[in-house]
Amino acid sequence: MRVLLISDLHANLPATQAVLADADAAGWDQVLVLGDLVGYGADPAEVIDAVRALSNATVIRGNHDKVASGIESPIDFNFVARQAAEWTAATLDADRARYLRELPRGPLALAVDGLDVAICHGAPFDEDYYIFDADDAAHALAASQAAITFCGHTHVQIAFREARAAGRPAVTPVDAERIDAGPGARILVNPGSVGQPRDGDPRAAYAVLDTAERIVTMHRVPYDIADAQRRIRDAGLHPSLAERLSVGR
Ligand code: ZN
């Protein structure tokens, strides 16, 4: 069974469409969405609708979903993010705002084709925590029971593997496009960001879990960045939100 992992779409419609077209071409059975459907980008309603239209989907909320739907104040956001969150809140109709507000908080523990999987936006112990390095990943894996834990939030496509050395867990980054989760090993995977990559690769990011093989593959898809940038400028959002898409930062 092929499970699609998407995160941090951030109201980027061209990137969302490119990822779904790429994933559809290879086929998939189930989709897990790790939050931040909105914020930064110019098409929050269209991206929410695209996610709602997915069959066999499990969706959790991200920090931008909370702020845009009024669950949390934007007090911890920088000026540009706050401005975008306020624009998003003003743009969304009541139905879509309610959809965001009612999204469940991570972590969620799921049995996916018999495999124990956990999904969270930031970390299993705190939905808003950023996991950047192996120390953070070790902390996250210690808080998760799952064989495979997925998180988003950093907009960096990255994976870590936990193996046992002399009875103690050791967590290291995995520099590969195919991450093997078994047997005996546990992994933590961030599929990267669909709508605003920050790992230096401007292409849209996602991942696919093959449950039979216990393998996660990382994917990058080119999309019409100029179109997304035009939409951001036309919406009157901060120009830096358009510019950063070119460089993936
Ligand atoms: Zn995000």
Structure description:
The chain is of the alpha/beta class and 249 residues long. The protein has a domain at 2-111 and 176-182 and 193-246: Purple Acid Phosphatase, chain A, domain 2 (4-Layer Sandwich), CATH 3.60.21.10. 31% of the residues lie in helices and 26% in strands. It contains 8 helices and 12 strands. It has helices at 13-26, 44-52, 63-68, 79-91, 94-101, 134-142, 225-234, 239-247; strands at 2-6, 30-33, 57-59, 108-112, 115-120, 148-151, 157-165, 168-173, 178-180, 186-191, 204-210, 215-221. Strands 3-2-1-11-12-9 form a 6-stranded mixed sheet. Strands 4-5-6-10-7-8 form a 6-stranded mixed sheet, with helices on one face. Helix 7 (225-234) packs antiparallel against helix 8. The longest helix has 14 residues, at 13-26. The radius of gyration is 17 Å and the shape is globular. Zinc ion is lined by residues 8, 10, 36, 62, 64, 153, 155. The site of zinc ion (ZN) has 7 residues, from loops.
- The count of helical stretches stands at 8
CATH architecture of one domain: 4-Layer Sandwich
Helix/strand class: alpha/beta
Ligands: zinc ion
Distance between the termini: 33 Å
| Element string (H = helix, E = strand) | EHEHEHHHEEHEEEEEEEHH
Neighbour order of strands in the largest sheet? 3-2-1-11-12-9
* Overall pLDDT score: 96
The name CATH uses for the topology of one domain is Purple Acid Phosphatase, chain A, domain 2
Number of strands: 12
Helix fraction bin:
25-40%
User: What is the CATH homology-level superfamily of one domain?
Assistant: Metallo-dependent phosphatases
Which blocks of ≥5 consecutive residues have pLDDT under 50? none
CA radius of gyration: 17 Å
How much of the sequence lies in strands comes to 25-35%
Shape: globular
Largest sheet: 6 strands, mixed
- In the CATH hierarchy, what is the class of one domain? Alpha Beta
